[in-house]
């Protein structure tokens, strides 16, 4: 397809990756970001083989992995230290590996690369509305001050789970808040206790503390490795948590993760702890004749399966490839939605089904989980399905062929 004038809203994971792919494909790209000075923020994420493959194709994987921590398995245990289940990457052929890293590391590498590309960046610009241009051949991007920018032939909406631009199209959609979220803290693992696993300690379905080794963190310097701690909590209980002060919470955290005492002791103020409430966004298709949705703006979900950033990276790659393989814009956008349907559909379904077993008020689910998941997940067939799901390679329920990973350019 000939070079298009493309406007991208949002410069996070999906937006930055899309800008790189589309600019390198010969399109004229303008990125609008509401933050005046984007910087590395957030907590730990799990970079799966799918996300790794996209970064490899962009030429960024080695730099990201150099600041990440290897994760060999996901393990869940009860408060009494009984293993509930264990999912090992090496249980699936292909030498797959997970990496824990600070979200800011991924942002820095993507954003620095965007700055090197012939991409126009408009920072401190909040796009609130989309309007058809005169003649209907493009879209004006309308800012919060009423200024019209563009027009652009295509709008890529990649401004996150709380995007207001989903209302500008007639696509059927469902958007709701999960009642649950998580408190996050990233600290220095001075005692080196983070290990090489994502560890979840569970008390029924109402309490969960997770430990994710997070590597060296954003920036260029060296130092002690970091670890991300997360604590499951209902959104309507966060105010009571703040009112109670740090003391009771720190005591509980030490009970759940005594090996992380040196990290927990680094929390001295409430504002060091971030709260994230999850959203569930379902829509299909993910495009109109001039607008396409990527990342959390298209399919936000609970992070229980650790797929968010990886799905966003894959979205960006598929969109660029779909446009490159089509002669008309309409065909390229339609191809994008078709090619993402089975992959995204599976992870949205699996996440909705799995989350209540770990974050809900349905305590009997916790008893069933603790009793059954261990024996069931040790069955070879089930273990293979679980590992394929963890790696981000599933396209549906069952033992069908995994998603094919692209080779490096």
Question: How does this model look, in words?
Answer:
The radius of gyration is 21 Å and the shape is globular. The model has no long low-confidence stretch (mean pLDDT 92). By secondary structure, the chain is α/β, with parallel strands linked by helices. Strands 6-5-14-15-16-13-17 form a 7-stranded mixed sheet. The two termini are 20 Å apart. It is built from 12 helices and 18 strands.
Return the structural class.
alpha/beta
Q: How large, in whole angstroms, is the Cα Rg? A: 21 Å
| Overall helicity | 25-40%
Element order: H for helix, E for strand: EHEEHHEEEEHEEEEEEEEEHHHEEHHHHH
How do the strands line up in the largest sheet? 6-5-14-15-16-13-17
Average pLDDT, to the nearest integer?
Answer: 92
Q: How many strands? A: 18
Query: Strand-residue fraction?
Result: 25-35%
Instruction: Characterize the biggest β-sheet.
Output: 7 strands, mixed
The helix count comes to: 12
Question: What is this structure's SSE topology?
Answer:
Blueprint (H helix, E strand, L loop, with lengths): L4 E5 L3 H12 L3 E6 L10 E4 L1 H10 L2 H5 L3 E3 L1 E6 L4 E6 L9 E5 H14 L3 E4 L3 E6 L6 E5 L4 E5 L1 E4 L15 E16 L8 E7 L3 E9 L10 E9 L3 H7 L1 H11 L4 H4 L9 E10 L7 E3 L2 H4 L8 H17 L4 H26 L8 H15 L2 H11 L19
Parallel strand pairs: 1-2, 1-12, 2-8, 5-14, 12-18
Antiparallel strand pairs: 3-7, 4-7, 5-6, 9-10, 10-11, 13-16, 13-17, 14-15, 15-16
């Amino acid at each position: 397809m000939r070079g298009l004038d493309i406007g991208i809203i949002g410069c996070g994971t999906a937006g930055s990756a899309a800008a790189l792919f589309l600019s390198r494909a010969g399109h004229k790209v303008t990125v609008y970001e509401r933050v005046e000075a984007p910087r590395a923020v957030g907590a730990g994420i799990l970079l799966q083989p799918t996300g790794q493959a996209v970064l490899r194709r962009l030429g960024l994987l080695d730099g990201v992995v150099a600041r990440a921590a290897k994760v060999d398995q996901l393990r869940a245990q009860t408060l009494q230290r009984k293993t509930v289940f264990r999912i090992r990457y090496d249980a699936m052929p292909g030498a797959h590996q997970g990496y824990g890293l600070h979200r800011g590391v991924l942002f820095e590498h993507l954003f620095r690369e965007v700055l090197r590309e012939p991409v126009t960046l408009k920072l401190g610009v909040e796009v609130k509305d989309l309007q058809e241009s005169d003649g209907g051949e493009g879209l004006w991007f309308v800012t919060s001050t009423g200024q019209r920018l563009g027009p652009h032939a295509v709008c890529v909406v990649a401004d996150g789970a709380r995007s207001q631009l989903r209302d500008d199209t007639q696509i059927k959609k469902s958007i709701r808040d999960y009642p649950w979220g998580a408190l996050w803290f990233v600290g220095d693992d001075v005692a080196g206790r983070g290990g090489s696993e994502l560890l979840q300690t569970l008390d029924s379905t109402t309490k969960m503390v997770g430990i994710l080794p997070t590597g060296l963190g954003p920036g260029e310097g060296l130092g002690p490795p970091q670890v991300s701690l997360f604590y499951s909590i209902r959104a309507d209980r966060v105010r009571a948590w703040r009112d109670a002060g740090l003391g009771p919470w720190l005591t509980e955290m030490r009970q759940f993760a005594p090996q992380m005492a040196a990290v927990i002791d680094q929390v001295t103020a409430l504002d060091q702890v971030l709260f994230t409430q999850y959203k569930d966004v379902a829509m299909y298709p993910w495009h109109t004749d001039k607008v396409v949705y990527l990342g959390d703006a298209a399919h936000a979900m609970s992070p229980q399966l650790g797929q968010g950033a990886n799905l966003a990276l894959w979205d960006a790659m598929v969109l660029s490839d779909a446009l490159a393989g089509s002669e008309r814009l309409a065909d390229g956008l339609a191809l994008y939605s078709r090619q993402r349907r089975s992959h995204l559909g599976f992870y949205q379904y699996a996440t909705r089904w799995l989350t209540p077993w770990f974050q809900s008020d349905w305590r009997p689910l916790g008893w069933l989980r603790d009793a059954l998941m261990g024996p069931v997940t040790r069955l070879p067939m089930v273990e293979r399905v679980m590992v394929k799901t963890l790696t981000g390679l599933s396209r549906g329920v069952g033992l069908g062929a995994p998603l094919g990973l692209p080779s490096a350019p």
